[in-house]
Amino acid sequence: MAKPDLDSRAHIEAFVDRFYARLLADPQLAPIFLDVAQIDLAVHLPHIKDYWCKLLLGERGYNRHTMDIHRRLHRLRPLQPEDFQRWLALFTATVDAHYSGERASRAKQLATTIAANMQQGLG
Fold first, then answer.
1. Which of 16, 39, 104, 122: disulfide with 99, CB 3.0–4.6 Å?
2. pTM check: above 0.85
3. What is the spatial distance between Cα 68 and Cα 90, in angstroms, rounded to a whole number?
């Protein structure tokens, strides 16, 4: 059976849920999200879903400044290169396990750029 592409809000929302399930089970990254950032999933996940729908579908629902959010986190607990590498590895593995196609490939390219830019911007 062919894997779906990240070409609809429903697919992107399912992807984000799968990705965060992996992320929040990860011994390296879970403490950053849960203990340091203390994210409220009910608030955070809709923002992340809107963010990826903006990037992949051109939707306009996301208007936050991600660097400012991550700068505050970085002041609380400096984010290391291995944190970005692990985030990207989990992101890519989640895409590859469940999705394929043009937008799935684009999501992985965007995530690579985002991780690099975020790491550089916080460095």
1. 104
2. yes
3. 23
